[in-house]
Automatic annotation (TrEMBL):
It holds the Pfam family LMBR1. It is a multi-pass membrane protein. Residues 357-392, 410-419 have a biased composition (Basic and acidic residues). This is LMBR1 domain containing 2. InterPro entries: GPCR-associated_LMBR1, LMBR1-like_membr_prot. Belongs to the LIMR family. The chain crosses the membrane at residues 153-171, 200-221, 298-317. GO terms for biological process: adrenergic receptor signaling pathway.
Amino acid sequence: RIETKPPYIHRVMFAHRLEVRKVSESIKYNHPLRKCVDTILKKCPTEYQERMGRNMDDYEDFDERQNSYPSEKSLVKLHKQVIYSVQRHRRTQVQWQILLEQAFYLEDVAKNETSATRQFVHTFHSQEPENKIIQYFYTPTVEWYWECLLRPWFYRVLAVVLATFSVIVVWSECTFFSTKPVLSLFAVFIQLAEKTYNYIYIEMACFLTIFFLSICVYSTVFRIRVFNYYYLASHHQTDAYSLLFSGMLFCRLTPPLCLNFLGLTHMDATISHKNTQPTAYTSIMGSMRVLSFIADGFYIYYPMLVVILCIATYFSLGTRCLNLLGFQQFMGDSEMTSDLIDEGKELIRREKRKRQRQEEGENRRREWKERYGNRDDSTRNRVVHTDQKESSFSETNTNRPLSKYTRSNGKTERDRIELLQDAEPLDFNAESINDDPLESDSGRYQPGGRYLSMSRSKIFDDV
């Protein structure tokens, strides 16, 4: 799809970015339209804003240079284009990620179908955190049985049920005008419930009929694309114009859908030709009997065109006609389709290699942190502890007289004191020799060898 190809969107964004940069460089800080340019820059992505800058270093007056400046009308047009391009770029990125997740999921299902362990193994882990309750019950074994065995059969059964409903709807659309005999199957079901006065059965039959008709009608609105401009995108990526357009279609389709349901079940007096109590819809919207040519002709025969629509959808006549007119369409028997398939495979391989490299880098960083993280923390704590001891030791020495030493309980501090003692000269002229040379005046014991105690008067004699 062209809409989901990032290179195409990048080219559009690059063209608009160049235009915004040109306008930002031409309109200086003191220009009256600089506020408009700043407003446009705020709508650009953050990485583009950092590249563009505001060009605030140039303080030349804009009137002194004879340059052609854009008008306010052109800036309004550029602002509109930037908003649309940014919104389209974000929407395309989200759609691209969704398509990648679907492709990886289908590859995982194809690989796990032949698994002997019967445990579903994902190629890439989900980036979103899963619920613990779901994770507890939805184990890899349960996931394998559901994804590889039960889910395909569930889809087959659902396809048979929906195909049966579709046949009933098509048959009833072509025969609901017949009242004698009653050929519409929905009308038959409702009339059987009326005879037995089974109100619950009537409610269930009406609910299922309207529910299936609503799915058929509204699912088309969700998928419709008007020139690839008006359409609904998932994950909250739909713009305001598409929401208004889709809301308008919903409002226009709901009344005809209700009228068609009344015709299928023969609750409309125009079809049943009975003087029954009018429904709430008929009492508000009125009856089709006012316009006889619509009630007797268009209202009866127009629904039969659904048969032609079903045949055209089954044989893909619309896609083939557009392909003949020159519009590229995805068809199974053309060279362009095979080229698109090969291009898609290459894109998936490239994104898969990119994700694998990212996961390998994250795993290496995680292993490095687990292996060396505790060691780094212990080394960091040891360094901090040593610095704290040294700072406390230096503060104590500065606060006390130089002739006194502090007692250290650590082996490192004791070795440092012994080295200092070895560097001191022996004083043989002293009056007495103490048994404990490192003993301070206060009488505290200090470990060390038998050296003379230093005094304040002779400590700097040899310097």
